[in-house]
Automatic annotation (TrEMBL), chains A, B, C, D:
The keyword Lyase applies. Keywords: Lyase, Metal-binding, Zinc. Belongs to the beta-class carbonic anhydrase family. This is carbonic anhydrase. It comes from the Bacteria. It comes from Brevundimonas intermedia.
């Protein structure tokens, strides 16, 4: 494993030594029967907000999409590349997940770039990508107290992604029929606590 | 947590009860100091191949991009939306990861659709998305034994993504300088084992 | 004037009979010397919120852009048609206006369509046009009390247009130098009163 | 009203002091019942040719679109931004106006730029915008006497906009049924006089 360095190798060895002995039957069953995850989760790429850790998930539970700032673009079936939409289509139509979660998190670099502008060095791709959320975040910046801006903006991006999910007709229909639930969550890194989007202006602690 | 159902709630409660007591100092430090992940990993959304589990990763270790079939599109700075490229740009330029891993896996539904065609119900988004890999997979279908096709095609997609990573000038330059390593891996679900891309035609077991 | 009906003809006759005798010298001077308006105003096409009436303006005072929902798109110099941007460029660079006002108004049909969706019969052009403001308005709909939604959304669109004005480098530079002022206003039709955008979340009465 | 300077404030105060006492019932009724303007007018942004003044219009009478050189682009329902078309769609289909007027005017800076070229400083947006009318104006420049060029070109742009209006199927149909009238006008600033487009080569005085 000459080209893979220590941390990954060490982690993989722990997986083999500590988890595989008890998990192998589960993995074998999943290989044979196929996956049937209950939840599709759209989360940020951030290393501090990993869905598998926060939900103590077992293999087979979560179908995971991760990108910068947990953004879901609106439905746009124009024949071009849409990575998030492809994952949604596969998770909803083929796998039949019963729940879609969008999970934002504290100290999000992508949301920060929506507030303060993307650094020049990431103007090529991060710039256009975060521009999806900038109009909403800038509105938040003008209408909430400064000391609440970061978190309110992170919540606003979760709201935006949830709204965009509902522009996919096959998501909206399943939600209307009660076959699919959409939930917005925010993970506070320093408190290790989830808050949840409700019909109130701000997210509320998870009961 | 009325709108989030049982499995997630239960997992989150385990996280709070079993992991948070020992992990909280680490999360607090990450919230304060910011993230400094050593590895950016591009993996599949598949619920059976979760990087955090396979590498027994702690929070802060892995910057994770997940999409259907762990695809990296080629460099195309045209001002349009490129979610994977945005995450690469952020991970390499802002976070300074020292390694990028592309991890494929067995029984990949995306690669299967490249071999057999995407079902009609997922023609809108999965269709165009997997078309990125179809030419390579079709070549594999003509040149390897049928009983090895699935795995060989999964490996071929990892190879394609690694090649595409090198079309990003700021990835190629860092790799040339020795500041960034690119690695291709494949996770065999039923064996729980990683194989690695080398200069041989087929991936090899990890030592 | 066979093809122009009564109301317009009657109005023009009043203009000739009642206003021209006192206004002709001013019009003649404006024809000779050219226009030098102090303000460029972006207002809605709505017949109930006419800038010339609300500011009791004389000819030569206001350079006026009117469209559905007083929207200013962001700076996008791509060589394509941008009617609002063309008017801004002409007003700022050629005429040297010293102020740009964006004026929203109560009961705005365009903002209403952002809240409730555009009727199908206007999906071809009103649909895409108002989509510029929909993300912000939908966020407002989730975060303000229902009985304040309409006005808060109208204010949010003025905010959006003001932010977009600042994406034009030659507007931002002039504002930074103090040579150009940007102001956001809202006209309450039933009260005949203007409110003004400040650094508070909601617009405030004009002193 | 710290951020709005003298002329506007003064005008608004005159509106409040001199017009509101007699106009308030009308505004209140318009707020309650909604607008029902009889005419949609496409006019130039020029400060010297304000439809509300020239037609001595009351609130509620005119649905107004104003841009550089009173241009109407042709029908192009491609899902992109078309501000003038959006206003036409709203005015014709939702409000049911019974008349569309295109009003040009003397000394039009936009038409002048079609004749002499747009100054370099306005090449980004005015350039492409006026290019819509340039072919017609260049034809006029070759076929009318030089001392009539400016006015003839201004008339030609009104004609062009009227022709383009007829490319909208829902305008052409309503005009064919007699439910909608299209009129072209030109305002001579120094004479304060309107001329009207007829089937003659040049516009004629309004009776």
């Amino acid at each position: 494993m000459s080209d893979i360095e220590d941390e990954l190798t060490a982690g993989y060895r722990r997986f083999r030594a500590e988890h595989w002995p008890t998990a192998h039957a589960e993995y074998e069953a999943l290989a044979t029967k196929g996956q049937k995850p209950h939840t599709l989760i759209v989360a940020c790429s951030d290393s501090r907000a990993d869905p598998a850790l926060i939900f103590d998930a077992k293999p087979g539970e979560l179908f995971v999409v991760r990108n910068v700032a947990n953004l879901v673009p609106p439905y746009e079936p124009d024949g071009k590349l849409h990575g998030v939409s492809a994952a949604l289509e596969f998770g909803v139509k083929v796998l039949g997940v019963k729940r879609i979660v969008v999970m934002g998190h504290a100290h999000c670099g992508g949301v920060n770039a929506m507030i303060n502008g993307a650094p020049d060095i990431v103007a090529d791709f991060v710039g256009p990508w975060i521009a999806q959320g900038t109009p909403v975040v800038q509105h938040v910046a003008e209408t909430v107290a400064h000391d609440q801006l970061e978190r309110a903006a992170e919540e606003a991006i979760v709201r935006l992604s949830i709204r965009n999910l509902r522009t996919f007709p096959w998501i909206a229909e399943r939600e209307a029929r009660g076959d699919l639930k959409l939930s917005g969550l925010h993970f506070g890194i320093s408190e290790g606590a989830l808050t949840v989007m409700t019909d109130k202006p701000r997210f509320e602690p998870l009961a």
